[in-house]
Amino acid sequence: MHRLEKLFRPGSIAVVGASGDPAKLGGRVLRHLTSFGYSGRIFPINLSGKPVQGHPSWPSVLGLPEVPDSALIVLPAPLVARALEDCATKGILQVQILSSGFAEEGGEGPAMQEELVRIARRHGMRFTGPNALGSISPADGFFGTFSSLLDTARPGPGRIGVATQSGAYGSHVYAAASFRGLGISRAIATGNEADLDVADCIDYLVEDAGTTVICAALEGCQDGGKLRRALLKAAAARKPVVIMKVGSTEAGAAAAATHTGSLAGEDRIIDTVFRECGAYRAASIEEMIDIAYVCATGPRPPSRDVGILTLSGGIGVLMADACIGAGLALPPMPAATMEAILEIQPVAGGRNPIDTTAQLNRGLQIFEGISQEMMRGADLGTVMAYMAHLGRNLERFPPLEQSLAALRRNFPDRLVVAVMTHVEEIRLRLEALGIPVFEDPTRAVKAVAGATFSRILQQAAMSAPDVARAAPLRLEAGNEAAAKAVLGAAGIPVLPEHACASPEEAQAAAEMLGYPVVMKILSADIPHKTEVGGVLLNLANAASVTEGFHELLRRAKAAKPSARLDGVLVAPMVRGGLETIIGVQRDPVFGPMVMFGLGGVAVELFSDVAFATAPLTPARAEALIDAVKGARLLEGWRGSRPLDRRALVDALCHISEFAVAHEDSVASVEINPFLVREEGALALDALIAPREEAAQPMAVAD
Amino acid sequence: MHRLEKLFRPGSIAVVGASGDPAKLGGRVLRHLTSFGYSGRIFPINLSGKPVQGHPSWPSVLGLPEVPDSALIVLPAPLVARALEDCATKGILQVQILSSGFAEEGGEGPAMQEELVRIARRHGMRFTGPNALGSISPADGFFGTFSSLLDTARPGPGRIGVATQSGAYGSHVYAAASFRGLGISRAIATGNEADLDVADCIDYLVEDAGTTVICAALEGCQDGGKLRRALLKAAAARKPVVIMKVGSTEAGAAAAATHTGSLAGEDRIIDTVFRECGAYRAASIEEMIDIAYVCATGPRPPSRDVGILTLSGGIGVLMADACIGAGLALPPMPAATMEAILEIQPVAGGRNPIDTTAQLNRGLQIFEGISQEMMRGADLGTVMAYMAHLGRNLERFPPLEQSLAALRRNFPDRLVVAVMTHVEEIRLRLEALGIPVFEDPTRAVKAVAGATFSRILQQAAMSAPDVARAAPLRLEAGNEAAAKAVLGAAGIPVLPEHACASPEEAQAAAEMLGYPVVMKILSADIPHKTEVGGVLLNLANAASVTEGFHELLRRAKAAKPSARLDGVLVAPMVRGGLETIIGVQRDPVFGPMVMFGLGGVAVELFSDVAFATAPLTPARAEALIDAVKGARLLEGWRGSRPLDRRALVDALCHISEFAVAHEDSVASVEINPFLVREEGALALDALIAPREEAAQPMAVAD
Lengths: 702, 702
Description:
homodimer; alpha/beta; Rossmann fold; Dna Ligase, domain 1; six-stranded antiparallel sheet
């Protein structure tokens, strides 16, 4: 039995703070538990010990005749700690704390919340909340929640599991799902997440046989590793996870921080983690439910290839645009398939979409032959059929229903979707065949895309390989030369450079390297050298080098008198190649994350960067590169030759392994520019920030 | 009376091809006309002259006892021309041709369609179709269409007007609108648009007093000027137009071409024209209806500033993210407003969204005070209230209803939107107060954004100023020097350059300009000079210039032996500044369109270009520049000084006026690069393509 089973499906439950007043939360919870057919034993706890809402009560859990599986605590905040202690004493080790007035409200709240955690830890107890909404399991008649939805509606049993942090968010999700006829397996809202969080609940839902699709929503995340493990477990089980994370904009993040005290985090990091772990991120509650509906109704498509069969050219075009916009593909039907289709419907237009036109002299049964020719001919993952208003016509629909049923029967692992205005009776009949039904064409396409990419992402999902921890890194100096020496040892290609303390050393180094050379000021206190004029290019002779040495020191002192200067770095002048930026930043929640982008204005103007969890494998490094639009320049641009992508992949792998191995001592590593050339590549500048320092946003060095 | 009134609201109508068989189109149309309370006179035309469906018929319109306002033709394609001629003879000058089998089917189709146009022109007749779906005016009981929707449902009367090219698209729009309780004023589908098109119908709906919002959908557009005029007329009347244009992707465009034979056109040009003319482009039918619903229910917001008042922190964050994503603003409440709000609800969180939390000890009436403090304090355009499931609770909702009603009453020109799960009764009551109601928070935000930007765009919409046509341009040579001479005369800053026919001339020119110089091959046959090595930079002395002259000619001959060579161009070497691209391309439908973007990879990698209709005013040139992300570089980048934006604005205006003045003889003008400097700007290369040549895609010259 999963360790959280008793939270979702308790065989018996105590309601601590049960009230006779149905306007109070403790009264609502008791009413919901007793009204909808829950067959478990219910133990109202009320100080009076008198009957509440007609049920006998006990003044404390300590006096109960048995140990209930679980307890719901709905007392005022100051009374919760004592009640929790009592539960532990009694042996109730799975608890939901619905009371508010803790970390989300300030004042004494955070301290009281901490106390709850200490109590639970001491007793090996697990709990949701405080400020949680409770859980439901409609098939068990179990509604352990005060959600106001239950005043007017009750979710029916089904296969969609819901785990959210925010209670109202969660109840909106299962309400909206219910109103369109979708059933819920279990739902839970974790509130302030002092102990259990959404990741724990996803972990449960993955194991829960009654759940086939998981919908989840986060506001923040405290434990990135746990979230990753839960999502990867779902991926391994091939159980779809459709997920939302609010607070993606500055305004949203500020609101999220106010709401639960949790930091929203860098949204693109969250996005990366979801994707890597096979969770599909939805853009709205409605889209989340649409995707869950497709996943719960039919098979997830085995490929991105979609065929559109339509009675209307115009809607066919609309759907084609939407497919391309959503990343799906519309392969044109092969010649032999077209022949077969035109045999069936001579006026059919297009090669995909196939427009049968509304003039169906041979009748609607032509859908059967055409749809199967399409599915077979182009080896599609999905056929979407647009059938105008026929879904409202009980008399005329049967030939279409037979066509779609035959398609499902003959291609059981492919998705078939019906798009049309419709009545409930026809929708239910198609759903029974495993065919989702949509009214809006664009929503249908987006839902198909979600189901498709959910499957593709889960197939590709895997945890990052382990890297042995290295001894803590001690950089002799925090400057460029020291960073390059360390990175060079870690396999990053660096130039033969020389750190020089005097003009004479600089001149000797330049002679050895050959002219022209580059000179840069060397100081841990000056990470952004060009801003102080700390870089001289193209120095062609000894005199310029000597003069350059003095000039660099002069500029550095003028710009930052307090800076400790370690001399200058002399390096060969390098031309050509593509300037990229490689960085690894340790995210406080998700650990070392690799960033890759182009140098120049692409990062700042177009945010053309991509992230990946460190360490990278070569395959994952390739994917990271491909996620950057500007990386097309690696293939050669306007006639130039292709650049050494392999050298870039190697460097990405090496730097990511380095960052993981030194995770305990290194906050960030950054190579900017990393020059990719026709043969090989070179780190032209590098910066390593030790972890003792406060983590800074990933800066773009010179 | 509008010239199309009789198509939308005929007082009497002939059905040419009326059939007794309700399975045939001519039978369906007659049945729809006679079944839903249309009070006009109906004249079935059937060769037999016998009663059809119980109504007397005539063998031809020629024998009718009166001249009907309009006719619907539903005959087989080969019989349509004769029927149309008869209508004209009878004096019926507004006709809808519902028959298919014309341009959309190939074969004899296009020729037959041309014949219809000739007949109509000869008689001053206007018609929709062929392959049209007809029109409806529910308030008149008029359903002149064969739409299969009417088998099971009938749109009710309302204020939303619908004009689409595709019939099924249109009927999907009004069906979906109807199912959510929205009424339709008029709807029409124009099919193949051999004569009347969607723009004509928009023009009608703007004047139609019964229509307050227009929904339109195009597949292609043949007459850009007419579309612009119709949209600008709507903007002047402040009647919202929510519009879709399918075929925005390659796959979609290919499907659209197959469907109606109309070219989709460059999607960004269409987008530009919609925006300039105040039409808001929707991304899906559902979104179009959502926006129309908001516009038809409440006032369009006077500003982008939104306040969110929510019972749920989590949903508040979701909506905040959606607002920012949609381009709306969430101003934080001023300090005094916050004081007043906290007075009302001490545990309220955030400054916008304002999260009341679900613990409302003082009851739901607090919404009244808080919502008004917000609206007043931050001078908002819209307040969106998230109220969880209270919209389903008839007992508990009244204090919220009163709060929202007071908000509407006290701020009659601002938009108030309710977001909640709800029952119909409560929705209808709020709608009667002018408050749209949504279940999904994200959809609500997108609809508010659509209504807001629809208003903002219409306020900014204006037609481009007139420019007098110039005499046809005759370039002596099609080369760079000739182009620059012409553009220099038109006010574009160009370098003092010299076209030189011999090494001696080149040397003399270089001496005069001062070294170093640039030399470029001069040939109308070599538009892309760098590809043939046709540019030499940084030539420092007479010897290099002489050698360079020979080298350039050698390279040009080697690369393109047939090219006519006009010598070389000698110009001063210019450094620094920002390379931009300015172009004007004559779109076959929309005329000269200005393009602006950055030089380098921004255009190709990130499609960072923007378009505008020529000619530009300085204000419109500024807006064009601001639409390009990379234009931020003009403000100075990483410490460099701001560049001369004014010089860029001037050049954009001059080139756009030039292109319009020479529209008859010039297909495209392109300056690439156009170098913007700290003081002034310079056209470094230019290309003018005469209109005799086939229009080419806007090429990027060197």
